[in-house]
Amino acid sequence: MRRPRPGMPPLTIRARLTLTYAALFTLGGSALVLALTTAFYHFIFQPLPDDQIPSSLDPDHDHFVGLSDQIRDAAASHLLRVALALLVLVVAVSALVGWWVAGRLLRPIADITAAARRASGTTLHERLNLSGPSDELKELGDTFDQMLERLDAAFAAQRRFVANASHELRTPLALTRAAVEVTLAKPEPDQEQWRSMARDVADSTVRAQQLIDALLTLARSEQRLTDPEEDDLADIAAEAMDRVAARCRERRLRVESDLGPAPLHGSVALLGIAVANLLENAVKYGSEGGLLRVTSARSGADRVELTVVNDGPALPADRLDRLFEPFQRGGGRGRAPGPDAPEGAGLGLSIVRAVATAHGGRVTATARPEGGLAVSLLLPAA
User: Fold this and answer.
1) Domain membership flag for residue 70
2) For 74, 138, 149, 282, which has the most beta carbons within 10 A of its beta carbon?
3) How many structural domains are present in the chain?
4) What is the residue-wise DSSP string for 214-271?
5) Tens digits of per-residue pLDDT, 128-151?
6) Domain boundary among 170, 203, 221
7) 21 located within any domain
8) Torsion angle, CA of 174/211/338/294, rounded to 10 degrees?
9) Alpha-carbon dihedral of residues 272, 277, 279, 285, nearest 10 degrees?
10) Are residues 354 and 215 in the same domain?
11) What is the DSSP string of 266-302?
């Protein structure tokens, strides 16, 4: 990479374009002037044909020939000076025009630079919306707008996530503090009251730990995969079904499975968490004695799909997108978990979506006409 000399400020791209225009015009103009001058000399000083030379010369012939040579030399020199002066003038004008044209051509880049300098957490909603032909600069502006849109969505999700996490962590801490203060406010608490306080504190601590573990899992799921492995989505689903088998028996669910081969390449640990969350949510929010169906198979040549279906109340279509937002529990789904089910952190499906995105896939939810939900996890096949 060429570096500027010490003491010389680097030239801007507008200045470089202007100098390039001027240099090209100077070279072209110089070649034109030289060509015109050479042609002028060639046609003026070339000898006369033999048939045009007179047979008898006038006594003053030599005098006229010398005078005509002087006139031609003076005319050629004058023509050359005028051509060079015009060349200098045209080069100067072309440099000014090139400076103006370069500024016009680079105006979109200046707009992009100004927008990048203004970009902050409060201005990410602004867009360039460059007009003009679909050229490289228009493509650059559209790409910059898309980047701002992604950043705006990421910042909004981060602000919403931090607010929700703060609220969720405040609840177990408040319960712990209330249990301790109530017990300490009693003049002489007995052993059973101390035990009750200890149980309340332990329950609140477990809830806070579960929330923190879920937040860490979600953060890890949104990062780039570092150690992908070969595995089969059917095997991961089978292991997850073994873990929820006892809960299925408690709720008397009709379990159906059709686990076809679904080879993939990814993080087995994160995929196991995602599939387990899908099944646990299906069991927790499904109807008592209802259906739980789990299927896996290839979806086309380059995709594998895992689908989890359960029974339950009918879900409005406008709530489906909210299912994958952080801290959306039973109320956000239009149904409540079973009476003996522990309340979760509300991050299960958020983790599923983060894991799917990290693997280059996606997760979708569809409301069943007869009630309940069908959630499909689509991932790239191995």
Assistant:
1) no
2) 282
3) 2
4) HHHHHHHHTSPPSS-EEEEHHHHHHHHHHHTHHHHHHTT-EEEEEE---EEEE-HHHH
5) 777 766 767 777 778 888 888 888
6) 221
7) no
8) 170
9) 180
10) no
11) E-HHHHHHHHHHHHHHHHHHSPTT-EEEEEEEE-SSS
Yes or no: say if 237 and 304 are a contact pair by the CB < 8 Å rule. Answer: no
At residue 205, the pLDDT reads 84
Interval 142-191: pLDDT, tens: 888 888 888 877 777 677 667 766 766 777 788 888 888 888 888 888 88
**For the whole model, what pTM was predicted?**
0.54
Q: Output the six-digit token pair for 332.
A: 């956000």
Identity of the residue numbered 372: G
Terminal Cα-to-Cα distance of the chain (whole angstroms): 42
Q: Which whole number is the average pLDDT over 284-303?
A: 88
For residue 202, the domain's CATH number is 1.10.287.130
Angle (CA) 180-184-187 rounded to 5° is: 155
Let me know whether 189 and 313 are in one domain. no
| Same domain, yes or no: 235 and 204 | no
Rounded to whole angstroms, how far apart are CA atoms 380 and 322?
Answer: 25
Which residue range forms the structural domain that includes residue 370?
229-338+345-380
359 contacts 378 by C-beta, under 8 angstroms: no
Q: Please check whether residues 166 and 282 belong to one and the same domain.
A: no
For residue 70, CA distances in Å to 19, 49, 63, 82, 340 come to: 40, 21, 11, 18, 118
Q: What is the CATH number of the domain that holds 279?
A: 3.30.565.10
